[in-house]
Amino acid sequence: MDFERIKGRLDALLEAGKKAELRGALNMLNEVDIAEYLETLDNEKVLMVFRLLPKDVSADVFAYMDNDQRTRIMEAMGDAEAMRIIDDMFVDDAVDFLEELPAGVVKRMLANCDQQRRDLLNQFLRYPENSAGRIMTIEYMEFHVGTTVGQAMTEIRRTAPDKETINTLYVLDDRRELLGTVALRKLLLANDDLKVEDLMNTQVISVRTTDDQELVADTVRKYDLLSIPVVDHENRLVGIVTVDDIVDVIEEENTEDFEKMAAMLPSDDEYLKTSVLTLAKNRLPWLLILMISATFTGMIITHFENMLASALVACIPMLMDTGGNCGAQASTLAIRGLALGEIELKDIGRILWKEIRVALMLGVVLALINFLRIWFFTPYDKDVAFVVSLAMFFTIIIAKSIGCTLPLLAKAIHLDPALMASPLITTMVDAASLFILFTIATQVLHLAG
Amino acid sequence: MDFERIKGRLDALLEAGKKAELRGALNMLNEVDIAEYLETLDNEKVLMVFRLLPKDVSADVFAYMDNDQRTRIMEAMGDAEAMRIIDDMFVDDAVDFLEELPAGVVKRMLANCDQQRRDLLNQFLRYPENSAGRIMTIEYMEFHVGTTVGQAMTEIRRTAPDKETINTLYVLDDRRELLGTVALRKLLLANDDLKVEDLMNTQVISVRTTDDQELVADTVRKYDLLSIPVVDHENRLVGIVTVDDIVDVIEEENTEDFEKMAAMLPSDDEYLKTSVLTLAKNRLPWLLILMISATFTGMIITHFENMLASALVACIPMLMDTGGNCGAQASTLAIRGLALGEIELKDIGRILWKEIRVALMLGVVLALINFLRIWFFTPYDKDVAFVVSLAMFFTIIIAKSIGCTLPLLAKAIHLDPALMASPLITTMVDAASLFILFTIATQVLHLAG
Predict the structure, then answer these.
(1) pLDDT tens digits, residue range B405-427?
(2) pTM given for the model
(3) CB nearest to B272's CB, from A30, A317, A343
(4) CB contact under 8 A, B258 and A262
(5) Beta strands at B207-208 and B178-183: parallel, antiparallel or unpaired
(6) In chain B, what residues touch A205 (CB-CB under 8 Å)?
(7) How far apart, in whole angstroms, are the C-alpha atoms of residue B31 and residue B37?
(8) What's the alpha-carbon Rg for chain A, to the nearest Å?
(9) Distance in angstroms (rounded) separating the CA atoms of residues B10 and B25
């Protein structure tokens, strides 16, 4: 059944005020779908439907709702009820919600929960934004050295329902230092009298609480992990990050790259939920910088103005666009290669050499097609066709070279390579292409420079 | 210890021919790191080191190596030994490797393995490229209706080491139709005499074997799943896809989008491993199409050539670039929003209205700055400044409108929205911006059109 039909049936029950039946129908749905349904309702109805949900389901549904609506529900239901929901959420989901709220509201809410939970949430909220500490969860299974398999299994049976994953179990020493991990499947197979340390894998791949979430995502992706332990600066286990949260991090980081590559400041919210003013503010800085820098390109035209045969002027857009596109192709691959860890700064020589060879091929083909096009299909003579085509050839080589090296150089001076994307490169290539065009024209057509 | 130091120590042992010590050292490393180390060795040494690895480790290491090197190892070691490795790999990893090999080699290899395995691999290789069937694995736990918890636990203990995940167990009826799933943690808590169907969750989210991997990734991401069952057209369970493979799919699909947005045909391989000729071939088509279409922009210039005051010509690059950048910003957000399922075709009105308001804001600011710049810092008079700024204003509005609607329209006619990215939009916006510029100039400066 698709979402529209589900919504239709639920709406009908809601209209008719059949609460018991509505509760029954909601019971058949996945938490994600319930959250999606709630987003279609107005404030008053949201709260009504939300209160129909069983307690454990409502915390999950809440975690899947968007921040605006969660804030509205919280405001409508009062601090005590709100805190009960936050209490039922996994710590990482609760932190994810709390960090978007105004500090005053967070303080008031935390005042309503018990000391232990409050300390915990406060600790999480103190980690740097976008760090491993902010996205980790504490709902994992840990055992101290000396625990037997039998004891461990009893403990797992007792507490498993509250854990986010029980696939991997963590073995700690008395100082809570992480010694190793045990796969649940190994525990299931083992004799009850064995100790957990006899089964553990000591080649643990972990991250620090202060590590950037991008590093966490890269590590999880590289080693194909389902979860990764997070340790503090003394190697004590404080949490784990599960792969479902990593999937969200990856999409977030990718979106940031996309936005930067299109000359925008990154934004955190979904497009439709971002205000027009915010969108405009995110877009203005780069547009402005690039607009101003494009005037230097105009200066090149002005400098050569007395030789502007209209044939040459008419080919300016084509030359500039092709150069810009070539540069963007090279820079996109370099940026993406850096993001995925496929290329490094030390590869710069190989990359440049590769790009120059690609550019030679493309240059010959495109220049030739261009030459034939001008010669056969325009009134201009062979000399003009030759000038434009030669300019095209060199523009492509320059564009590819700039496009592939700039992201690497940005990385070298610790700037984000994604900033060196098509718009910036286009502007530089524009200037180069016009300079090449007019210089060649001066030589070949014997015009005054 | 970082990779360079690990490599240094392993190289030293390898040079000295200390095989036993090398085996001991390798035993301390993660499979991913071993694969990374092998990639730094030449053919002869790779095979030697590879043969030092324990059998179960070597299959895992093999799965993490890149295709070139795997093919070389396979060729060096002969079909029988090669097939033993493929036998030890998870089915999805084996398929991932086999699908890149020439058909003849695949046939020869499959001839070396037993009937059952051969049939299985053949079945996987028949699924469409990039489909759920190609990336699924069959190493999951399934139980038929009527199995007791006690029987299930015995079976799990017996077979768990060969399964890719035992987190979720699948319940089938006699026709192998998927009825529901049971979380392992529920099984651990339950009484031995209960039946698996008493514990199962019947709200199963599944995909079909022929579904595109992008749909699989979207579903896993939406519902925060760790694995998803794959069923055939009669709802019979044939495999599962685990989230670690989904992470790879997401990166693959993102890279494709990036490449398309920079006007390239998508490629499957890592940048440094792609040949120069392939790179050139991927990049040529769009460059060519865009180069030719940019000549239409040139025609606009030619059409207005007798009115080409050099002031206007000099501002062409700035106008074109700003228009292109504005269009790219809008199209990037639309493409990304579509990819993440945040916006749909039916939102087109809201998006267009939003973009137009953003464009009005940006247009006023940029046009004003531009006006002041020309008036104060160039020899041209107020009229020229006015013409250029007004053209800038309308260009931004047109660019944003084109940028946000084209990806949505592409989606409507079942084209990939990512194709409507900056390069194509730049070309369209270039033509529009020049047309606007010259039209306004004709009116205001009273030049002949």
Answers:
(1) 999 998 888 887 877 777 778 87
(2) 0.76
(3) A343
(4) no
(5) unpaired
(6) 30
(7) 10
(8) 30
(9) 7
